Amino acid sequence: MKKAIVTGVSRGIGKEICRQLVSEGFTVYGTYNTGSAEAKLLKVELGDRVELYQVNFADRQQTLTFISTIKAITFNAIVHNAATLEFEDFQNFDLDIWDRTIEVNLTTTLLLAQGLQSSICDGGSIVSIGSTDGLTGTFASISYAVSKAALINLTKSLSNNFGSQNIRVNSIAPGWIDTDMSTKASMTAVSLTPLARNGRSEEIAKVVSFLISDAASFITGANIVVDGGYTNVDYILLKESQGDR
């Protein structure tokens, strides 16, 4: 029986990753924080193939307790999906936002990978869900963007350290995906995206499925951008091509 940890399964991309892996025969050990009702509905939907754990990854002790609780289990995959996004006021920057964001989005990834390294089977895989925000500068979500940029390097560094154990480590950088994290502003990305739409959570889940499968057996340390071509587009060049010269 294949087993996977998926953090942040109560909604959005994490929920679809959980569904995808269960459909492929995995038992998923999923975490959630505030989405208790949504997590319970997922459990009703998927039954015994999902084990749920409530963990606030902003609390270091809760993270360590979770690691201790599941350490005796052997896993085929760990999927780091849980994340937090809080907007900042740059002129009155709140370092508490920075600390929480780095803890949840970055430090937790390292803690789980390092703390569970002996729990990952030979040929296993770690996948982290990043963001195209980590590929560019930002204005009011600096903590989030920095955490996702650092996640790309952490992926490469972990892949170096896990390679001798035949464990692969990769990350995915979704572009604008229609989830409960979507904003009015994010919906305008459609006009700049070559595929003329935002992505769907299940499209990210399928990339996770590929990366943890034998089909990706020689891929490690990679960051896979899944954005419908959004990061290929320069706004000014697009407007010029449309006659705005």
In short:
The protein has helices at residues 12-23, 36-46, 60-70, 95-115, 142-162, 184-187, 201-211, 235-241; strands at 2-6, 26-32, 50-54, 75-80, 120-129, 168-174, 223-226. It has 245 residues and is of the alpha/beta class. The termini are far apart.
Structural descriptors:
7 strands, globular, 8 helices, 7-stranded parallel sheet, Rossmann fold, 40% helix
Please, could you describe this protein's structure?
The chain has 245 residues and is α/β, with parallel strands linked by helices. The chain is built from 8 helices and 7 strands. Strands 3-2-1-4-5-6-7 form a 7-stranded parallel β-sheet, sandwiched between helices. The chain is globular. Helices cover 40% and strands 18% of the residues. The mean pLDDT is 96. Helix 1 (12-23) packs across helix 7 (201-211) and helix 4 (95-115) runs parallel beside helix 5 (142-162). The protein has helices spanning 12-23, 36-46, 60-70, 95-115, 142-162, 184-187, 201-211, 235-241; strands at 2-6, 26-32, 50-54, 75-80, 120-129, 168-174, 223-226. The longest helix has 21 residues, at 95-115.
Q: List the secondary-structure elements in sequence, H or E.
A: EHEHEHEHEHEHHEH
What is the overall number of helices? 8
Termini distance? 60 Å
CATH level 1 class label: Alpha Beta
Question: Which structural class do the helices and strands define?
Answer: alpha/beta
Number of domains: 1
Looking at the structure, what is the overall shape? globular
Order of adjacent strands in the largest pleated sheet? 3-2-1-4-5-6-7
Percentage beta strand: 15-25%
* Overall average residue pLDDT: 96
CATH architecture: 3-Layer(aba) Sandwich
CATH topological fold name = Rossmann fold
Rg, Å, rounded: 18 Å
Low-confidence stretches: none
Give the full name of the CATH homologous superfamily. Answer: NAD(P)-binding Rossmann-like Domain
Main sheet attributes: strand count, strand direction, barrel closure:
7 strands, parallel
Total strand segments: 7
